[in-house]
Amino acid sequence: MKFEQHLSQQQKQVQRLAMTQQLQQSIQVLQYNTEELQVFIENKALENPLIELQNNVSDFTYPGSSSGQYNSEKDSNLMNQIPDNHLSLFEYMIDQIHLNYRGTFLRKLVLFLAEFIDLNGYLTISLEKAAEQTGADAIQILDALVLLQQLDPAGVGARDLRECLLLQVERDDRSPALAYIIIEEEFEAFANRKWSLISKKFDIELSEVQEVFDYVQTLTPSPGNVFGSTAGLYIRPDLKVKISEGRPIVVSNKEGLPTIRFQQAYFSKMEKIADPEVQEYISEKKKEFEWLQKTMVQRGDTILRVGTEIVERQQDFFMKPERPLKPMTLKEIAEKLDIHESTVSRTVNGKYLETDFGSFELRSFFSQGLASSDNDGEDTSVSDVKKQIKLLIEQEDKAKPISDQKLVEKLKESNIEIARRTVAKYREALNIPSSSKRKRYD
User: Fold this and answer.
1) CA 431 to CA 186: how far, in whole Å?
2) RNA polymerase sigma factor 54 DNA-binding domain spans which residues (predicted)?
3) How far is CA 186 from CA 73, 208, 289, in A?
4) Residue 191 contacts by C-beta under 8 Å, 6 or more apart in sequence?
């Protein structure tokens, strides 16, 4: 058997996209939201001496002054402009402990337990472990817990949800007479709506259990949340929608973003230095500036194009009071604008559009469609189906709540074909309990 080896040359042309570092950064810049983009630009300015930042800050107008100048004749206490920085839950509790309790060993135990209160206000250490670490006996630790639980807010220091609710009920003079004993003795049955057992045990009407349930709904399961920081909980919309001549018009919003400028004077000075390394350095930094400027423009143009197309397709949302949404996918926008679907995805994530009735993430305008049975060519968006489910439940007889199967039948009357499992999924997404848990006994 002979083996032969043949060598041949073939020329093949292959087109590939080279993912350079600048291209990867351009993709990343498109994905940044406004705050992330601002940080990125500021970091680039720190690295590049040829980049100068000019902040786009609106002129300050003092409340009540039309000219933007300070008016001493108005209510002009500038201290009102200083934000109110609240104490944290831990700081608030420490202040109360030092104010209300004398400097005894018991106070030290209360201070020790306060260190194990989480952000929701719950105690995260067992009394046995606390006693072991402090050298106190069981009675002393229990006394310290009682003192801790007498602090504000009501419910703080609880070890579970049941105890948290009991602490709040105990300090509320307006609580129903049976609220405390029902939660204390039959909390599980109460939470699982096995109210007939409670009704028989305490010889009361179901309407009285319903009254306790309605009251418990007013309590908080997380008393520490009131001290949650709101710092930074704001968004800067990338686009604004204005109504002009009966149509929504989209404009870019550059407020808050710095404008980048080229440091021409510094560049001209460095250009005169006859040092190859200096020349290579400033040439590289100039190219980086040009790339950043181009990338910023492309990002803004892409967001504006995508936003304009979204608003064009969802005009009814901006013009009609019920805010209906039409079915729309990322692929449809990508094909219309002749860009990749992943580009649309990066563009709509974390980017917001401001209207007169609120700000909305661009991604929220996308929704799959459900085929209607009337064959009119118009699909119904998932968002609209959820709204109809919510409306039907709001209008139901609370003594006889509508089951998921009944919701299917009622939606079918509106020419919407949908499975019961899908109705249940949408109902749960709306945080609406099942029919058995919506029943009222008024």
Assistant:
1) 25
2) 279-440
3) 62, 15, 68
4) none
What do you get for the CA distance between the two ends of the chain, in Å? Answer: 96
Map out the domains of the chain with their CATH numbers. 89-227 (no CATH), 239-365 (no CATH), 370-438 (1.10.10.60)
Report d(CA 369, CA 383) in Å as an integer: 9
Higher-confidence residue of 69 and 167: namely 167
Question: How far is the CA of 95 from the CAs of 156, 187, 237, 323, in angstroms?
Answer: 15, 33, 40, 48
> Inter-axis angle of helices 276-313 and 34-47, to 10 degrees?
170
Q: Tell me what percent of the residues of the chain surpass a pLDDT of 90.
A: 35
pLDDT tens digits for 359-398?
Answer: 899 988 887 666 555 545 456 777 778 888 888 888 888 8
| 401: nearest Cα among 366, 372, 432 | 432
Backbone angles phi, psi at 425, to 5 degrees: -65, -45
| Cβ-proximal residues to 75 (8 Å cutoff; 6+ apart), any chain | 64
How far CA 264 is from CA of 10, 42, 259, 260, 267, in Å, comes to 51, 19, 15, 12, 5
What is the mean predicted confidence (pLDDT) over 389-414?
87
Angle at 394 between CA 393 and CA 400, to 5 degrees: 60
Averaged confidence pLDDT in the chain: 83
Query: What are the two backbone dihedrals, phi and then psi, of residue 259, each rounded to the nearest 5 degrees?
Result: -90, 135
For residue 137, what are the CA distances in angstroms to 97, 114, 125, 157? 21, 18, 15, 19
State yes or no: pLDDT of 57 exceeds 60. Answer: no
**Is residue 26 helix, strand or coil?**
helix
Whether the pLDDT of residue 340 is over 80: the answer is yes
pTM recorded for the entire structure: 0.58
Q: How do strand 239-244 and strand 352-355 relate by DSSP bridges?
A: parallel
Taking CA atoms, 322 is separated from 293, 380, 383, in Å, by 41, 15, 12
- Half-sphere exposure in the Cβ direction for 83 (13 Å, CA): 7
Give the C-alpha separation, 192 to 209, whole Å.
13
Q: Taking the alpha carbons of 205, 211, 214, 219 in that order, is the dihedral positive or negative?
A: negative
β-partners of residue 353 are: 239, 360
Tokens standing for residue 205: 């009407």
Q: Tell me, what DSSP letter sits at residue 246?
A: T
